[in-house]
Amino acid sequence: MNPLRTLLGFPSKNSQRCRPEGRNRRQSIRYASEVPIELGWWEEDEFRSIDGTLLDISHGGAAVVLAPESILPEGNVHLRLADISESAWVAVEIRAVRPLKQGAKVAHLQFDGGCSYAFFRKALPATHLDSMGASYASGEFDTRSWR
Questions:
Q1: Dihedral-angle region of residue 86 (phi above 0 means left; psi in -120 to 50 means alpha; beta otherwise)
Q2: CATH number for the 26-124 domain, one of 3.30.43.10, 3.40.50.300, 3.90.1150.180, 2.40.10.220?
């Protein structure tokens, strides 16, 4: 089980099935991650940013854990991997923000046009996908399908 999920009180992936609802539900498999991230946006002429931790990521979106005092704007922001110096900012839309029992917040993000394959791979530990064997051969991971 993912230690961050346990700390935040999320159930194990095997103990609870998600039931997609609404018109904008994810269409891609999400992969757990614990990579430090930064969310940034412009407020008039000033660039603002906050730090957080990537909880999970897919081709279509991501979830990030933020400090309880974090204040996000509505709509579009930019996401980057904080510990990777050459990480580019990626445009995302904030779809929802919800509090956790421990006081932290989870922001649910949707990539603008999908996540690039390079960003996706940098967001996961080097061996995470390689250890998945046959499931790694899924069309979702065909680099020709990613921009």
A1: alpha
A2: 2.40.10.220
